[in-house]
């Protein structure tokens, strides 16, 4: 929740112009912070922390920011010329995301009346350059936003950064539970979990499926019945599905039980995301009369838990689980939705060639274009080949962005692709939820660039997050970002990969 966090605002000043000037600077800063908070455009509240007039004051504020769990980031603004040597120690210690706001209290120059006193109080034109220099020299990662503080477009850029900063804070306290291991032999979804915690903040633990089954056993019939009834209220379905005598009803019942067990263990462990593996669902002998286990992967549960904000990655894909949680967190309150998706199958159709996005079952209903339909069908993969419940829908049309993180061995690489969702069609013989998109700049270039970059077949998609979110995320994390968009050409993209290889070789 954004309400759990706040963003600190620190105004850079100095005492050269006397105490009166600083009093005015302080009053201007308060007015600006109030103006931003009252704009209705910022998801996270800004808290004004006063002017910083000396190295000691800067360092004290940055240390406090580090130690305050509510503080998700710091905005700095140099009202007057703030000699930047006084920022060195504080910036070196700051461990929270930084936004350097290049703005000014006054908007237009009052040509006829401006005197030196006025100028001294509207000095960010040079004060922010002094500050920018020290950030550049120290290699401080930050976002620079330029614009007047009352301007809506400027406020929106701050809002993007706030959402990412809060998502980043959320991921620093994130536990991902792996029910079962990585799908055997798969490279792209695997990676270095130690490096992930060190670089990206989240922690990944293994949780035996037998532990999950302890929760499964404890789910009551009463709770299961209530959830099944909720499914029937929420989703389209054929009336016969409600007949308790049928095998299909039993499968809906089992799906509800699986969802309750998963939610309970995630809550108990304080986990924000999870992975599953179709080869590990409890006991392996389905004919064992005493067997306790899922009768297929908990697909419906994964769909609904994703919509609730839990990170999810299929086949043990913990990087996608963590990334999806962050995508969901950053998108809170935005209208069109997000999902974990997989490049499923290609549709060659000339200029409209596209990629069908789906999964065995696990697509988040937040992206649905229509009320999802609850259906039960056979799923013949994994340790338990069985009928199983799922939500079926097609996704909204329109532009979006999909993202993935891969482990390149010496670094994490974030790959981001602008895509355009076009109308997907129902798949009567493959009843799963789906999206259909054409990647930017076109199908052939977009897919080739993604493949050249080593991108996964799994990605985290959002209609609402623009590439600016990912730029801010990569900056906070300090990881490589490769963007594939309308301007991408393959020769330039290949060069960027080569140059980045050298950069990260030198950086380590
Ligand atoms: Mn998959």
Low-confidence spans: pLDDT under 50, at least 5 residues?
A: none
Could you give a short account of the major beta sheet?
Answer: 6 strands, antiparallel, barrel
Q: Order of strands across the widest beta sheet? A: 10-11-16-15-14-17
How many strands appear in the DSSP assignment? 18
Total count of domains = 2
Tell me the helix content.
25-40%
- What's the rounded overall pLDDT mean? 95
The hetero molecules present are: manganese (II) ion
Assign an overall shape.
Answer: elongated
Which secondary-structure class do the elements indicate? alpha/beta
Describe how the helices and strands are arranged.
Elements lengths: L5 E7 L6 H19 L7 E8 L2 H13 L3 E8 L9 H6 L4 E5 L13 H5 L3 H15 L4 E4 L5 H20 L3 E5 L13 H8 L2 E5 L1 H10 L2 H14 L12 H23 L3 E3 L23 H10 L2 E3 L4 H13 L7 E10 L6 E5 L14 E7 L6 E7 L5 E10 L4 E11 L11 E6 L3 H10 L5 E5 L4 H11 L2 E5 L5 H18 L1
Parallel strand pairs: 1-2, 1-3, 3-4, 4-5, 6-7, 6-8, 8-9, 15-18
Antiparallel strand pairs: 10-11, 10-17, 11-16, 12-13, 14-15, 14-17, 15-16
């Amino acid at each position: 929740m954004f309400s759990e966090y706040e963003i600190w605002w620190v105004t850079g000043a100095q005492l050269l112009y006397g105490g009166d000037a600083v009093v005015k600077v302080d009053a201007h800063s308060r007015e600006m912070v109030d103006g931003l908070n009252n704009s209705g455009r910022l998801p996270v509240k800004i808290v004004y922390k006063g002017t910083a007039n000396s190295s000691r004051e800067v360092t004290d504020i940055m240390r406090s920011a580090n130690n305050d769990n509510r503080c998700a980031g710091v905005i700095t603004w140099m009202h007057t010329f703030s000699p930047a040597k006084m920022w060195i120690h504080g910036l070196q210690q700051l461990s929270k995301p930084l936004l350097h706001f290049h703005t000014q209290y006054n908007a237009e120059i009052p040509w006829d009346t401006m005197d030196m006193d006025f100028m001294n109080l509207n000095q960010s034109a040079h004060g922010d350059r002094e500050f920018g220099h020290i950030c550049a020299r120290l290699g401080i990662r930050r976002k620079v936003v330029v614009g007047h503080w009352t301007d809506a477009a400027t406020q929106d850029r701050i809002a993007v950064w706030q959402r990412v900063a809060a998502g980043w804070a959320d991921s620093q306290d994130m536990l991902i539970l792996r029910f079962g291991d990585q799908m055997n032999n798969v490279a792209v979804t695997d990676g270095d979990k130690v490096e992930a915690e060190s670089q990206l903040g989240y922690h990944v633990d293994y949780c035996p499926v037998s532990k999950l089954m302890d929760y499964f056993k404890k789910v009551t019939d009463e709770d299961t019945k209530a959830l099944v009834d909720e499914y029937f209220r929420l989703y389209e379905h054929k009336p016969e599905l409600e007949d308790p005598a049928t095998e299909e009803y039993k499968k809906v019942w089992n799906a509800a039980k699986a969802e309750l067990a998963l939610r309970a263990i995630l809550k108990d462990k304080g986990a924000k995301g999870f992975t599953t593996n179709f080869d590990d669902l409890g006991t392996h002998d389905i004919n064992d009369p005493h067997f306790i286990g899922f009768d297929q992967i908990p697909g419906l549960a994964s769909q609904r838990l994703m919509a609730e904000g839990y990170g999810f990655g299929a086949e043990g894909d913990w990087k996608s689980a963590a990334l999806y949680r962050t995508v969901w967190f950053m998108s809170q309150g935005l209208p069109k939705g997000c999902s974990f998706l997989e490049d499923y199958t290609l549709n060659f159709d000339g200029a409209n060639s596209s990629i069908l996005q789906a999964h065995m079952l696990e697509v988040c209903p937040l992206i649905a274009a229509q009320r999802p339909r609850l259906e039960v069908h056979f799923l013949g993969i994994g340790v338990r080949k069985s009928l199983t419940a799922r939500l079926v829908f097609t996704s909204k049309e329109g532009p979006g962005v999909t993202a993935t993180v891969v482990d390149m061995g010496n670094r994490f690489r974030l790959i981001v692709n602008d895509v355009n969702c076009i109308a997907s069609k129902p798949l009567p013989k493959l009843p799963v939820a789906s999206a259909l998109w054409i990647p930017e700049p076109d199908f052939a270039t977009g897919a080739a660039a993604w493949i050249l970059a080593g991108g996964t077949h799994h990605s985290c998609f959002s209609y609402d997050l623009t590439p600016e979110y990912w730029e801010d995320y990569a900056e906070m994390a300090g990881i490589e970002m490769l963007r594939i968009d309308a301007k991408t050409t393959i020769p330039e993209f290949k060069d960027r990969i080569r140059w980045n290889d050298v950069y990260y070789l030198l950086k380590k």
